[in-house]
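S.,

Sequence below, as promised.
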Amino acid sequence: MIGTMTETTAETTAVRGQEGTAATGRDLPDEATARLVAGGWVLPTAVPGLLCHTAKFEAVLARLQAVLTAADPSASPGPVWYPPVAPRADIDRAQYAEAFPHLLGSVHALEPDGEPAGLDLSDDSARRPADVVLAPAVCYGVYPLLADSVITEPVFCDVAGTCYRHEATSELGRYRSFRMREFVTVCGETAAPLWRDSWITRCEKLFGEVGLTVSVEPASDPFFGPGGRFMKTSQIQQNLKFEFVVPVRADDAGTAIASANCHKEHLGERFAIRFADRGWAHSSCMAFGLERIMLALIHAHGDTLADWPDALA
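The prediction came back faster than expected:
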């Protein structure tokens, strides 16, 4: 296996040739991205926050996925893959747009039964909002499946998908289009933080085994709707979210590559999920930014896969 994975000379040459074509008429990639291109990992696009990933990148990512699957104590056979778009009604019900409207990517299209004749198709005003938006996180697909119901025992889910957030920055690692792997539980109030804490311990060990020295830091995120500014401080004070931080490029002081989150009853209440006779269900998720983890691994181990941990090489 290692011999197969390290035979990348021809692939790297081909990638560099493609990169030269891709860069024609465009700005050249920044230094950090150019290094990944030269290593045979990615190809640039015409916009920041959007990269193409080579067969070399995807082969290692598949091994990383297997490591994550093996870490799940619920014995998941692997993730359910969600589409890159989500029903607008579900995202609205979760109150994501109310908290972070600038990050949400919407989908606009001509009416399906509309008559294009005479329309100026270059005029965006002819397009109307669709009933889907670009998925900002994978776990938002879990709660609608349990909506308006009563569960009597904890539910565990292993999900993955392509997400989009309209990030303004162009720094490497701040993807606009990216993939997430999430382990999710919907359960009782006491079980949710215990489940989250067990994943923190598990992930510190997991990342150490693949050669990443992470720092676990308290943080905040957009799960809490229109009171987000107040809840940001409250969330940190309540230790609801922790991020796993590690450099992903040479000039990086640290980037979050994964997070362990307690949502309390927020999503249970929003989606009317009750836990037995104990009120609104609570939820927690363990989220992995797959491309960011890959960037951290490349930064830590270099371009030669023979130098990587056996589980990923």
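The chain has two domains: 2-61, 75-108+120-301.

Coffee later?
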